[in-house]
From TrEMBL:
<protein>
    <recommendedName>
        <fullName>ATP synthase subunit delta</fullName>
    </recommendedName>
</protein>
<keyword id="KW-0375">Hydrogen ion transport</keyword>
<keyword id="KW-1003">Cell membrane</keyword>
<keyword id="KW-0813">Transport</keyword>
<comment type="function">
    <text>This protein is part of the stalk that links CF(0) to CF(1). It either transmits conformational changes from CF(0) to CF(1) or is implicated in proton conduction.</text>
</comment>
<keyword id="KW-0472">Membrane</keyword>
<dbReference type="GO" id="GO:0005886">
    <property type="term" value="C:plasma membrane"/>
</dbReference>
<dbReference type="GO" id="GO:0046933">
    <property type="term" value="F:proton-transporting ATP synthase activity, rotational mechanism"/>
</dbReference>
<dbReference type="Pfam" id="PF00213">
    <property type="entry name" value="OSCP"/>
</dbReference>
<dbReference type="InterPro" id="IPR026015">
    <property type="entry name" value="ATP_synth_OSCP/delta_N_sf"/>
</dbReference>
<keyword id="KW-0406">Ion transport</keyword>
<comment type="similarity">
    <text>Belongs to the ATPase delta chain family.</text>
</comment>
<dbReference type="InterPro" id="IPR020781">
    <property type="entry name" value="ATPase_OSCP/d_CS"/>
</dbReference>
<keyword id="KW-0066">ATP synthesis</keyword>
<dbReference type="GO" id="GO:0045259">
    <property type="term" value="C:proton-transporting ATP synthase complex"/>
</dbReference>
<keyword id="KW-0139">CF(1)</keyword>
<comment type="function">
    <text>F(1)F(0) ATP synthase produces ATP from ADP in the presence of a proton or sodium gradient. F-type ATPases consist of two structural domains, F(1) containing the extramembraneous catalytic core and F(0) containing the membrane proton channel, linked together by a central stalk and a peripheral stalk. During catalysis, ATP synthesis in the catalytic domain of F(1) is coupled via a rotary mechanism of the central stalk subunits to proton translocation.</text>
</comment>
Amino acid sequence: MAELTTLARPYAKAVFADAQEQNSLDAWSSSLATLAAVSADASMAKVLVHPSLSSAQQARALIDVCGDKLNEAAKNLVSILAENKRLPLLPEIAALYEDLKAQMQNTVDVVVTSAFALSEDQTAKLAKALQAKLNCEVRMTSEVDESLIGGAIIRAGDLVIDGSITGKLSKLAEAMKS
């Protein structure tokens, strides 16, 4: 994983710099999301690394599948990645780009996994508390995982807060073993 990140980072930074210069952050987000989704498909992933296809053929296949969802700059990125045998990095490039965009916009994506669905009031209070703690705008999404028994797990970038019953039971069991 670290190697993929290391390889993808220069491309993500270059795309981000271009997006800032052209004032097209959202357009690049959309293009990269499309490219990441298409390139992550199992059938397309095989095409992108198929040894009998030239890099131009691989790039053309990806561009054709994406159709008119890509602008010329995104098509050029695909061609460059194909020439350098880096097309499989597209999902990682898209993720790094979104991280750079969030840092610039001082936002963070938060995923709250709870045992039960959160009410709008609970979501709003949690978002407000996280906004104060993280000192940035919070974009929250919620997931339900009944195996947590109760409580929630909050993921905000590298920060993970495990307030689930399952997590607490695991910690208790670990403490009892030592």
